Amino acid sequence: MVLTEMTSAGDEETGPFMNVHVTVNGAPRSATVETRTLLVHFLRENLSLTGTHIGCDTTNCGACTILLDGKAVKSCTILAVQADGRELRTVEGLETDGKLHPIQEGFIEEHGLQCGFCTPGMMMCSVALLQKNPHPTEEQIRRAISGNLCRCTGYVNIVKAIQHAANKMAGPSGGGRP
Amino acid sequence: MIPPRFEYFAPSSIDEAVQILDRFGGEAKVLAGGQSLLPVMKLRLAEPRALVDINRIPDLAHIREDAKSLRIGATTRTNDLNDSELIHARYPILSDAAYEIADPLVRNMGTVGGNVSHGDPANDLPACMLALGAHFVVRSPTGTRTIPAKEFYQDTFVTALESNELLLEIQIPKARPGQGNAYVKLEKRIGDFPIVGVAANLVLTTKGTIESAGLALTAVGPTALKATEAERHLVGKAPEDDAFQRAAELAQEITSPVSDLRGPAEYKRAMVRVLALRALHRASARAHGGA
Ligand SMILES: Cc1cc2nc3c(=O)[nH]c(=O)nc-3n(C[C@H](O)[C@H](O)[C@H](O)COP(=O)(O)OP(=O)(O)OC[C@H]3O[C@@H](n4cnc5c(N)ncnc54)[C@H](O)[C@@H]3O)c2cc1C
Ligand code: FES
Ligand code: FES
Do B109 and A74 touch (CB under 8 A)? Predict the structure, then answer.
């Protein structure tokens, strides 16, 4: 990785800067940002992908959850420069060709949201769970979303939404393993 | 909250990393998972001039067993302990702890090396390392040295690591027949730091008495605490409630918990005894082949 621009040591205003190249939802994107820029700000402000939310900024709520090389992480506690050269997936990438992802359908069908603030993070966390474990038990679902807080729903319908997606993704013949 | 400004380096070798650390003479910090360091920087409790991101150094993330040791690379993610069959089967104390550290998202970033080097008495892995008799392999520009876990923790956020040293690997004595261990943690809610945590490791002789014992405590002192007297008391005894009761009392004696949002000091001290008993019984059951 190269430092593209660097301000002088005495400069109190900005910098140092770096160029960050990532793949977001399959497309290459890049921007020059201060080294201290958090990944969530990079997504929202530099790439205008505002689906990823900031709820707490203290690594507690999970509203900022995205997938980094396939793993669910809190983008408020990662530097944009750490993501250079890596693959990101955000809530904007769930819908394909005008068709909702099963997890999005699940949240609609099961009323998995009220204000919706936690929903992008919840869905990204669920997508990672279902990739790793296509047939999670309720206990496994609850453990998996334990880093994602919802102030509205009481979680019951969120769990149902994830189960809905798991069944849908397993297909008509799937859903075998408990 | 955005952290203060810093120069960012992402070296691709260990040598390069320790040279950068050396050049900044204490003003640079290692960035591993960032799940403790970035929150602390956002709060301006740390303002390093430079960050040395070690995630692009190859071969620093591994879990493997050789003839003598279990070797865990510094950038192994906390969740990798959870996902490892080897750890579940042979070092269950580490999967007990990893399962309850923070939440799955933090564990996907947070590293084993960061957890043991941060020096926070509330981190769960240091007590496990003390109970297991781990050694930490560290590198500086002048060479490599090995530090026993029991000499590593000096004070809150103060460890034996010099500012130009990088932790490379954790080495844990290889699991033996007759060995069992467990970590028991009391938390206010899922994903939180512990109110109290206790790590226990027992090795039994073929006759069934205790050959060696490790017992260590989380969040009840300035660092993770090794309960040396309690360990000594256990050696040679039968792994039964009598010996465990006395060991738990001896462990309680070395604690100095503080009252905070997680509970009053007296409560925490009382819980040390309860959790030490649970951890010792579970370790013993596992040494006898149970889960
Ligand atoms: C919401 C939340 C809840 C949490 N709950 C828990 C919990 O219950 N239990 C628990 O144990 N932890 C908990 N943590 C902390 C978490 O486990 C961190 O991941 C861990 O403490 C630090 O690991 P890291 O890789 O993120 O290190 P970093 O944040 O990158 O670094 C931490 C410190 O260690 C130093 N360091 C890191 N790696 C090395 C190395 N290889 N060589 C030399 N120095 C190094 C850094 O310079 C820094 O000073 C929690 C964190 C959050 C945000
Ligand atoms: S905004 Fe990242 S965890 Fe709350
Ligand atoms: S729907 Fe409002 S926070 Fe979850």
Answer: yes
